[in-house]
Specification:
transferase; alpha+beta; 16 helices; five-stranded mixed sheet
């Protein structure tokens, strides 16, 4: 089993930060995408599709055009470079022919013999005779600046030049290099130290083919003439730089532009090596360059380099980029407009379905979706209609169940109250009859009869304000006779409250019973119960108040909305739950208590109309 060290398992802080940023960026993009509406997502999809398509088309067009131009440019530049190299090779051959013509001329042959014999007395005669050969060579090749012949008996050159007497050929680096090689060699552009004026020249140094030892030719070519010839052949390429360099990346013509520093000897060895001609593309400078090269046959150490900037070469293709950008902008605008129209058409049924759902959310279940189309949205709409039908059926079933539940709760409340209350009442009636209080007994029997008659209410759940008040009055009358001198009660109804308003039956009796059983539990007399009814155009306000020992109103108020198992406050919760069943959220019940001063129950119910 291979175990990893903590170092191998750990992730670098930089990598962890990058992973976290990547994950955070994706999360942010997903969050933004999720927040977009369907219409905006369609807009984004249209815009991205068109933008990517146009960008890909424009980019591919630019790439293909660029590659074609590069290929043609490479070929054209290589052809021009090869032609220039051939011209230079031909010129070099012409110069060699001119030198050979001098070597086989009669004056040179005679001078060679004297030089081999060491005869110096004919020097000036030979000097004069050689002027004709020098003149013919310059006429044959105008780029020849001067011809210099070094011999043991003296130096020979054109009489039109002034010799720099302080500079000896046999003491110069040219002579040292000439002794090391038997082949003719070329010297890069330099100042001509053999003659006065210090003109810049390119020199050909070669040993004479005569029998005279230590005899050398130095042919100086005018550097400006060579540069001019190369420039004339490439004037049509303003973005093309032509360089004549050796394989050490040193410039042969010093008056030409400098080769970039990055194009050094190692660069040439890497990309060119021993190859004679070709082309390649590099990007080691600030911009990509296209490079063609050709080796000169007369001097394999010299190269012609053509360097062209790729960006300058492709600047004429910038119109493709501009055109692509403009077309993309126009198409994006059109895509937004078209997607807006298309999305409005495509999403119209969906918006209609959304509006219907909003109405359903506002408890309007009578809406129905209608559409002539048979698409997916329409299918969803038809399913929506089916769902509404099922919901209506379920609501009817729930209403029936709630109606039965209210009846059951009302019966349960009556069943809870009746045995205890009836037992006490009957005992009180018997006791009063035994003590001779026949009038009170008679009043209690009549009140009890009316109490049960009003409570039954012919099996109806609704009663009127008048009957509900009469019901609670009979109950309080009976309780006053049962608990003499314990309490007094008062029922106040405002003049603007109609006695015929519909109201839930058996609503007030549990509240006053709660006052008797709990509020006056530890009192022997002085209890007061007050019932007040007021109304406005829309609501009926009921206040049941007593001066008993009070209750924890805040705790009991909280328990109204939460089922609990405690028996305390059962009557209050029963009345509150029935109010919610009968009136829904339109009914309110608020409790407040100040012990032995005022414990109140505020009930507000909507007015449903008279019965």
């Amino acid at each position: 089993m291979v175990t990893r060290t903590p170092k191998e398992n750990s992730v670098s802080p930089l990598k962890a930060f990058a992973i976290q940023c990547e994950h955070g960026g994706c999360t942010f993009m997903k969050t933004m995408l999720y927040k977009l509406t369907l219409k905006k997502r369609m807009w984004v999809s249209f815009v991205l599709l068109i933008a990517i398509s146009i960008a890909a088309t424009g980019g591919l067009s630019f790439y293909i055009s660029a590659r074609v131009i590069e290929r043609n440019t490479f070929q054209l530049s290589q052809d021009n470079l090869n032609t220039s190299a051939r011209v230079l090779d031909e010129k070099a051959k012409q110069i060699l022919v001119s030198v050979l013509n001098i070597m086989i001329s009669q004056p040179f042959v005679q001078m060679s013999k004297d030089s081999a014999a060491g005869k110096k007395d004919g020097y000036y005669g030979h000097m004069t005779a050689m002027n004709s050969a020098f003149t013919q060579a310059k006429l044959a090749e105008p780029s020849i600046e001067s011809i210099f012949i070094a011999t043991p008996i003296g130096e020979f050159y054109s009489a039109s030049y002034y010799r720099n007497q302080g500079y000896s050929f046999y003491d110069s680096p040219l002579y040292e290099k000439a002794q090391l090689t038997k082949e003719p060699f070329w010297i890069e552009g330099h100042e001509d130290l053999l003659f006065q004026g210090k003109d810049r020249v390119i020199s050909l140094v070669m040993k004479s083919i005569s029998d005279s030892p230590n005899m050398y030719f130095v042919v100086n070519l005018n550097e400006k003439a060579i540069q001019g010839m190369l420039s004339d052949r490439h004037t049509e390429k303003e973005d093309q730089n032509l360089f004549l360099v050796n394989r050490n990346a040193a410039s042969v013509l010093l008056n030409q532009p400098n080769l970039p520093k990055s194009y050094d000897k190692a660069f040439l060895e890497k990309h060119i090596g021993t190859s004679l001609r070709g082309h390649f593309e590099v990007g080691i400078t600030e911009q990509y360059d296209l490079i063609n090269y050709a080796t000169l046959q007369f001097n394999p150490d010299w190269l012609l380099l053509s360097v062209q900037s790729r960006s300058d070469l492709l600047k004429d293709l910038s119109w493709i980029q501009w055109a692509t950008g403009i077309i993309m902008l126009v198409c994006i605008i059109m895509a937004v407009l078209v997607s807006n129209v298309l999305s409005a058409i495509l999403l119209k049924p969906l918006y209609h379905l959304q509006m219907l759902m909003s109405k359903v959310g506002r408890n309007d279940l009578s809406v129905r979706f209608q559409s002539h189309y048979q698409d997916e949205v329409s299918q969803v709409g038809h399913k929506f209609n089916s769902m509404l039908l099922e919901i209506n059926e379920l609501i009817d079933e729930v209403k029936d169940a709630e109606r039965e539940k209210r009846k059951s709760e009302a019966k349960a409340l009556q069943a809870q109250i009746s045995p205890h209350f009836l037992y006490n009442t009957l005992n009180t009636i018997i006791w009063k009859m035994e003590t001779g209080e026949l009038d009170n007994s008679k009043s209690m029997v009549i009140a009890l009869s009316q109490l049960f008659q009003l409570g039954l209410n012919h099996g109806e759940e609704w009663t009127t304000v008048e009957k509900e008040l009469l019901h609670v009055r009979q109950y309080l009358t009976i309780q006053q006779l049962c608990y003499e001198e314990l309490f007094d009660f008062e029922i106040v109804v405002s003049s603007d409250t109609s006695q015929t308003l519909p109201i839930m039956k058996i609503m007030l009796q549990p509240l006053v019973e709660n006052s008797l059983l709990h509020g006056f539990e530890h009192m022997e007399s002085g209890g007061k119960i007050r019932i007040e009814l007021t109304s406005d155009n829309q609501q009926l306000h009921i206040v049941v108040e007593d001066n008993g020992s009070g209750m924890d109103a805040e705790k009991l108020q909280l328990s109204l909305n939460h089922p609990i198992t405690e028996k305390k406050g059962y009557a209050m919760r029963n009345v509150f739950n029935r109010l919610q069943l009968y009136y829904g959220g339109e009914a309110t019940m608020v409790l407040s208590s100040e012990p032995f001063e005022a414990t109140k129950v505020y009930i507000t119910i909507p007015i449903k109309g008279e019965v």
